[in-house]
Protein 1
Amino acid sequence: MEAFYSEPVDPWADSDEIAPPPPQYVPPDVTVSTPPPSWGPAPLLPGPPPQRFPIGEVVFASLLPIIICSFGSWIYFVYAGFHRRDKRQFLVAAGYASLFGMACVFMAIDPTPVESENLSSAEWTGFFLFMATAVASAVHGGILAAHPGDTPYGRHLREQARQFAAFDPAQARRLGVGRPDLVRPFDDGGLVDLNHAPGHELARLPGITPEAAHRIVLGRFERAYAHPDELVVRGLVTAQTMNRIGSRLLCIPPVHQPR
């Protein structure tokens, strides 16, 4: 009987289902740097302006009523009303104009002859009213001029800061836009962020009591403010108060929105 010899055969040698070997791992080249994103830099905020005392405006407001004998006691306050967009200054101007008119009336009630050396009691009243109006308006105008308050430049700074916060809210939070409680290397025109400013800074706004400031802080924990007008919608401030402070408010979205 003849012996039978056979070699071992791999049954999958000719099969098409054999998986190819996995590719070898190639470590990344750490010497190659990834280019930064292609978007442009955020607009820069203006630096703090130099603090200059408005000596010219103070001199003008103080001397004008004296030079023209109280007739111009109302002029600077009309200018301040337009320049600062403050309607209260028009009421002040009307008050000084009324006092000047009353002085004229007293001078005309009981006039004395030209050759007389003495004045009547009505004329003395009118004279002292002239002097009191001139001095009061000079002192009042000088103090008001020494505290510039809201100015076109301040409104320009606030508008720039608003645009910056809308363009890059995260960077605005880091820089402290709307945070007068922080030391910052720029001037945002006096903006106050409803979502981040502490309660004591909110209470410094005209018409905002400490109790109202506390309610505003609690409200942002319930739901972040998206627009300053929400203070009126939520019943936290009156519409009259919002008209006074609305130009100084903004709402930068917080990092974590309250649920």
Protein 2
Amino acid sequence: MNLHYMNQRLCSLVVFRELLQDPVIAAFQRMLASAELDDGDAFATACAAFEHRLSELPGYEKEREKVIANTEALLDGRPANNVLLYGDAGTGKSSAIKAIANEYAARGLRLVEVKKNQLYQIPDLMDQLAANPLKFILFIDDLSFTTNDDNFAALKAILEGSVGGRAGNIAVYATSNRRHLIKETLEDRQGSDIHESDTRQELMSLAARFGLTVTFGQPDKSRFVQIVMDLAAQYGVEDDPEKLIVRAEAFAIRAGGRSPRVAKQFIELCKAGVLN
């Protein structure tokens, strides 16, 4: 298998499918144990192919600082927490995690994305990665559950460390638009559960099992304006600042509200000449 192709596909972000059956993942496991992974420069170059870089993410610096500090603890062999980034859509939660992985790839950090329906396979993955000298973030994007979801119990066990103990070179980073992670309806509260309060507390407690929770709230006007101006400088969009801000605010209203994603879409459309 072509090493360059494997680097591109697996260096910074590995889409984790069927752990033992997938030949690509099997090849990844073999590469983890090989000396080729010791070539930090080669992997840093491959990681640079991914679009997310910390220097390109305007706004939310204080929020990212907490995640960065936790990541550096992981890299230094100090106690590191599992991390939950939650908040409004489009605020850069996933981008922050991917950018941090890119930033520290040369120091041996790798990002492995796990889909929600693959959570039960994480213990096997941890067994494969625990003895490796590299450090790993297991990344779960857009996390949420419904009641009676089997994956809920799987993640709960993983976060509690009851599955084979907690490996010192692995941390779980998850993003969600929901603080309590469980989608609950009025019908769920009208069931026949005698100990309904206890059940509800258990469902709501999953988020508390993440040692570090970072909130990415919708930006207010001043933060949104700063994000727009920073992105305009990055993309080389030259326009009267006051006019640009007015247009950006109008664009955000049509797009459903302010967010870094909306700001980026606006600036990209300006750069392309679609919005004049």
